[in-house]
Amino acid sequence: MSPRLHLSPKLVSDLRSQFEKVFSRSLHVQDKKTKPRSGGHKKSPSQSQNQSQSQVSFDDALLECFATLSPKCRDEELEDLVYLILDLYQFHGVPVAIAEVDVTQVVVDLRTALEDFSQKVSRHRACSPERPVDEHTFLILDKNLQGIPWESMPILRGRSVSRIPSVDFLHDRILFASWKHKFLGTDTPQVCPKGAVVDPRKGYFILNPSGDLARTEGRFQAWTKEMEEVGWSGVTGHPPSEQQFLNALRDQDLVV
Description:
Blueprint: H1 9-27, H2 29-32, H3 45-54, H4 60-67, H5 75-91, H6 103-127, E1 137-139, E2 161-163, H7 167-185, E3 203-207, H8 214-229, E4 233-236, H9 242-251, E5 254-255
Parallel strand pairs: 1-2, 3-4, 3-5
Helix pairs in contact: 1-4, 1-6, 5-6
Protein backbone atom coordinates (compact mmCIF):
# COMPACT_ATOMS: atom_id res chain seq x y z
CA MET A 1 0.00 0.00 0.00
CA SER A 2 3.00 2.30 0.03
CA PRO A 3 3.02 4.94 -2.71
CA ARG A 4 5.35 4.14 -5.59
CA LEU A 5 8.52 6.21 -5.59
CA HIS A 6 9.13 6.02 -9.38
CA LEU A 7 12.86 5.62 -8.85
CA SER A 8 15.38 6.18 -11.60
CA PRO A 9 17.77 3.31 -12.51
CA LYS A 10 20.59 5.32 -10.91
CA LEU A 11 18.78 5.56 -7.57
CA VAL A 12 17.95 1.85 -7.62
CA SER A 13 21.59 1.05 -8.36
CA ASP A 14 22.76 3.26 -5.50
CA LEU A 15 20.41 1.57 -3.06
CA ARG A 16 21.56 -1.86 -4.23
CA SER A 17 25.17 -0.87 -3.66
CA GLN A 18 24.43 0.41 -0.15
CA PHE A 19 22.51 -2.73 0.85
CA GLU A 20 25.20 -5.03 -0.54
CA LYS A 21 27.89 -3.19 1.43
CA VAL A 22 25.88 -3.46 4.65
CA PHE A 23 25.33 -7.20 4.30
CA SER A 24 28.81 -7.83 2.97
CA ARG A 25 30.21 -6.51 6.26
CA SER A 26 27.79 -8.63 8.28
CA LEU A 27 28.61 -11.82 6.34
CA HIS A 28 32.35 -11.34 6.93
CA VAL A 29 31.84 -12.47 10.52
CA GLN A 30 32.61 -15.98 9.32
CA ASP A 31 35.68 -14.88 7.36
CA LYS A 32 37.44 -13.69 10.55
CA LYS A 33 37.06 -17.12 12.11
CA THR A 34 38.15 -19.07 9.02
CA LYS A 35 41.87 -19.81 8.91
CA PRO A 36 43.43 -19.83 5.42
CA ARG A 37 44.54 -23.20 4.13
CA SER A 38 48.06 -23.59 2.82
CA GLY A 39 49.24 -25.39 -0.29
CA GLY A 40 47.78 -25.88 -3.76
CA HIS A 41 45.23 -23.72 -5.50
CA LYS A 42 42.21 -24.94 -3.57
CA LYS A 43 39.77 -22.17 -2.65
CA SER A 44 39.28 -21.40 1.02
CA PRO A 45 35.75 -21.33 2.48
CA SER A 46 35.93 -17.53 2.70
CA GLN A 47 36.86 -17.30 -0.99
CA SER A 48 33.98 -19.59 -1.91
CA GLN A 49 31.67 -17.49 0.24
CA ASN A 50 32.82 -14.25 -1.40
CA GLN A 51 32.32 -15.78 -4.83
CA SER A 52 28.82 -16.99 -3.93
CA GLN A 53 28.00 -13.66 -2.34
CA SER A 54 29.15 -11.75 -5.44
CA GLN A 55 26.75 -13.81 -7.52
CA VAL A 56 23.76 -12.69 -5.43
CA SER A 57 22.15 -9.42 -6.49
CA PHE A 58 18.97 -7.79 -5.22
CA ASP A 59 16.18 -7.62 -7.76
CA ASP A 60 14.95 -4.14 -8.74
CA ALA A 61 11.38 -4.89 -7.63
CA LEU A 62 12.65 -6.01 -4.22
CA LEU A 63 14.75 -2.87 -3.84
CA GLU A 64 11.83 -0.62 -4.78
CA CYS A 65 9.82 -2.37 -2.08
CA PHE A 66 12.59 -1.83 0.49
CA ALA A 67 12.90 1.80 -0.59
CA THR A 68 9.41 2.58 0.70
CA LEU A 69 10.55 1.80 4.24
CA SER A 70 10.92 5.00 6.23
CA PRO A 71 14.31 5.72 7.86
CA LYS A 72 12.28 6.47 11.01
CA CYS A 73 10.66 3.03 11.12
CA ARG A 74 10.85 0.82 14.20
CA ASP A 75 13.89 -1.37 14.85
CA GLU A 76 11.64 -4.44 14.65
CA GLU A 77 10.80 -3.65 11.02
CA LEU A 78 14.47 -3.38 10.10
CA GLU A 79 15.20 -6.61 11.98
CA ASP A 80 12.56 -8.36 9.87
CA LEU A 81 14.28 -7.01 6.78
CA VAL A 82 17.67 -8.25 8.02
CA TYR A 83 16.46 -11.81 8.59
CA LEU A 84 14.62 -11.83 5.27
CA ILE A 85 17.75 -10.89 3.36
CA LEU A 86 19.97 -13.29 5.31
CA ASP A 87 17.52 -16.07 4.45
CA LEU A 88 17.74 -15.04 0.79
CA TYR A 89 21.53 -15.28 0.91
CA GLN A 90 21.30 -18.76 2.40
CA PHE A 91 18.74 -19.78 -0.20
CA HIS A 92 21.21 -18.83 -2.93
CA GLY A 93 24.04 -20.85 -1.42
CA VAL A 94 25.87 -18.22 0.65
CA PRO A 95 26.80 -19.75 4.05
CA VAL A 96 25.59 -17.45 6.81
CA ALA A 97 25.96 -18.08 10.53
CA ILE A 98 22.88 -16.08 11.52
CA ALA A 99 23.60 -16.60 15.23
CA GLU A 100 26.95 -14.82 14.82
CA VAL A 101 25.59 -11.83 12.89
CA ASP A 102 25.41 -8.62 14.92
CA VAL A 103 21.81 -7.80 14.02
CA THR A 104 21.81 -4.64 16.12
CA GLN A 105 24.74 -3.21 14.14
CA VAL A 106 23.20 -4.25 10.83
CA VAL A 107 19.98 -2.43 11.81
CA VAL A 108 22.00 0.73 12.53
CA ASP A 109 23.80 0.42 9.18
CA LEU A 110 20.54 -0.17 7.32
CA ARG A 111 18.92 2.88 8.91
CA THR A 112 21.92 4.98 7.87
CA ALA A 113 21.67 3.62 4.33
CA LEU A 114 17.95 4.44 4.18
CA GLU A 115 18.60 7.97 5.49
CA ASP A 116 21.23 8.56 2.80
CA PHE A 117 18.91 7.14 0.17
CA SER A 118 16.01 9.33 1.33
CA GLN A 119 18.20 12.41 0.96
CA LYS A 120 19.19 11.35 -2.56
CA VAL A 121 15.54 10.89 -3.51
CA SER A 122 14.69 14.35 -2.15
CA ARG A 123 17.53 15.96 -4.11
CA HIS A 124 16.48 14.09 -7.26
CA ARG A 125 12.88 15.29 -6.95
CA ALA A 126 14.02 18.86 -6.34
CA CYS A 127 16.10 18.82 -9.53
CA SER A 128 13.66 16.85 -11.67
CA PRO A 129 11.18 18.92 -13.74
CA GLU A 130 8.85 15.94 -14.10
CA ARG A 131 5.33 16.35 -12.79
CA PRO A 132 4.51 13.99 -9.88
CA VAL A 133 2.23 11.10 -10.73
CA ASP A 134 -1.36 11.45 -9.49
CA GLU A 135 -1.60 8.04 -7.86
CA HIS A 136 -4.85 6.50 -6.68
CA THR A 137 -5.40 3.36 -4.60
CA PHE A 138 -8.45 1.16 -5.13
CA LEU A 139 -9.58 -1.24 -2.40
CA ILE A 140 -11.58 -4.35 -3.32
CA LEU A 141 -12.78 -5.75 0.01
CA ASP A 142 -14.92 -8.77 0.85
CA LYS A 143 -17.53 -8.89 3.61
CA ASN A 144 -14.92 -9.84 6.21
CA LEU A 145 -12.63 -6.89 5.45
CA GLN A 146 -14.97 -4.05 4.58
CA GLY A 147 -15.58 -3.17 8.22
CA ILE A 148 -11.92 -2.27 8.79
CA PRO A 149 -11.23 1.48 8.39
CA TRP A 150 -8.39 0.99 5.88
CA GLU A 151 -8.48 4.63 4.78
CA SER A 152 -7.57 5.72 8.32
CA MET A 153 -4.40 3.64 8.46
CA PRO A 154 -1.31 5.89 8.72
CA ILE A 155 0.06 4.59 5.42
CA LEU A 156 -3.10 5.68 3.54
CA ARG A 157 -3.94 8.93 5.32
CA GLY A 158 -3.91 11.98 3.06
CA ARG A 159 -3.92 9.86 -0.11
CA SER A 160 -6.57 9.24 -2.75
CA VAL A 161 -8.33 5.97 -1.88
CA SER A 162 -11.58 4.50 -3.22
CA ARG A 163 -13.51 1.34 -2.45
CA ILE A 164 -14.87 -0.51 -5.46
CA PRO A 165 -16.80 -3.79 -5.74
CA SER A 166 -14.57 -5.46 -8.36
CA VAL A 167 -11.89 -4.99 -11.02
CA ASP A 168 -14.61 -5.28 -13.68
CA PHE A 169 -16.33 -2.25 -12.15
CA LEU A 170 -13.08 -0.24 -12.38
CA HIS A 171 -12.55 -1.29 -15.97
CA ASP A 172 -16.11 -0.30 -16.85
CA ARG A 173 -15.68 3.14 -15.23
CA ILE A 174 -12.45 3.77 -17.13
CA LEU A 175 -14.10 2.89 -20.44
CA PHE A 176 -17.12 5.04 -19.57
CA ALA A 177 -14.89 8.00 -18.67
CA SER A 178 -13.05 7.68 -21.99
CA TRP A 179 -16.33 7.56 -23.88
CA LYS A 180 -17.73 10.52 -21.92
CA HIS A 181 -14.69 12.70 -22.58
CA LYS A 182 -14.76 11.78 -26.25
CA PHE A 183 -18.46 12.56 -26.41
CA LEU A 184 -18.16 15.86 -24.52
CA GLY A 185 -15.06 16.86 -26.40
CA THR A 186 -17.04 17.45 -29.60
CA ASP A 187 -18.95 20.33 -28.04
CA THR A 188 -16.85 21.35 -25.05
CA PRO A 189 -13.16 21.17 -25.99
CA GLN A 190 -12.20 23.04 -22.83
CA VAL A 191 -13.03 20.00 -20.70
CA CYS A 192 -9.90 18.49 -19.15
CA PRO A 193 -9.04 15.25 -21.01
CA LYS A 194 -8.14 13.42 -17.79
CA GLY A 195 -10.12 12.58 -14.68
CA ALA A 196 -13.83 12.69 -13.98
CA VAL A 197 -15.99 15.74 -14.65
CA VAL A 198 -17.65 16.71 -11.36
CA ASP A 199 -19.67 19.82 -10.62
CA PRO A 200 -18.72 20.69 -7.01
CA ARG A 201 -22.14 22.30 -6.50
CA LYS A 202 -24.03 19.10 -7.32
CA GLY A 203 -23.51 16.89 -4.29
CA TYR A 204 -25.51 14.82 -1.82
CA PHE A 205 -24.46 13.80 1.70
CA ILE A 206 -25.67 11.07 4.06
CA LEU A 207 -24.55 11.74 7.63
CA ASN A 208 -25.04 9.27 10.48
CA PRO A 209 -27.84 7.30 8.79
CA SER A 210 -28.05 4.77 11.63
CA GLY A 211 -28.44 7.53 14.22
CA ASP A 212 -25.85 6.02 16.60
CA LEU A 213 -22.87 8.27 15.85
CA ALA A 214 -23.80 11.44 17.70
CA ARG A 215 -20.21 12.69 18.03
CA THR A 216 -19.54 12.18 14.34
CA GLU A 217 -22.77 13.95 13.45
CA GLY A 218 -21.83 16.89 15.65
CA ARG A 219 -18.36 17.08 14.14
CA PHE A 220 -19.68 17.36 10.57
CA GLN A 221 -22.79 19.41 11.26
CA ALA A 222 -21.16 22.75 10.45
CA TRP A 223 -19.73 21.27 7.24
CA THR A 224 -23.14 20.06 6.05
CA LYS A 225 -24.61 23.55 6.56
CA GLU A 226 -21.81 25.08 4.49
CA MET A 227 -22.37 22.55 1.71
CA GLU A 228 -26.12 23.19 1.68
CA GLU A 229 -25.39 26.88 1.15
CA VAL A 230 -23.49 26.10 -2.08
CA GLY A 231 -26.15 23.78 -3.48
CA TRP A 232 -25.75 20.40 -1.81
CA SER A 233 -28.58 18.46 -0.18
CA GLY A 234 -28.70 15.44 2.07
CA VAL A 235 -30.03 13.73 5.19
CA THR A 236 -28.71 13.67 8.76
CA GLY A 237 -29.54 11.29 11.60
CA HIS A 238 -31.67 8.90 9.53
CA PRO A 239 -31.31 6.89 6.30
CA PRO A 240 -32.56 8.36 3.03
CA SER A 241 -35.65 6.88 1.47
CA GLU A 242 -35.19 4.63 -1.53
CA GLN A 243 -36.44 7.36 -3.83
CA GLN A 244 -34.13 9.96 -2.26
CA PHE A 245 -31.15 7.68 -2.78
CA LEU A 246 -32.10 6.94 -6.39
CA ASN A 247 -32.57 10.65 -7.10
CA ALA A 248 -29.17 11.42 -5.57
CA LEU A 249 -27.41 8.83 -7.73
CA ARG A 250 -29.23 10.01 -10.84
CA ASP A 251 -29.15 13.78 -10.44
CA GLN A 252 -26.02 14.56 -8.39
CA ASP A 253 -22.40 14.35 -9.48
CA LEU A 254 -21.15 13.30 -6.07
CA VAL A 255 -22.68 11.28 -3.23
CA VAL A 256 -20.86 11.21 0.12
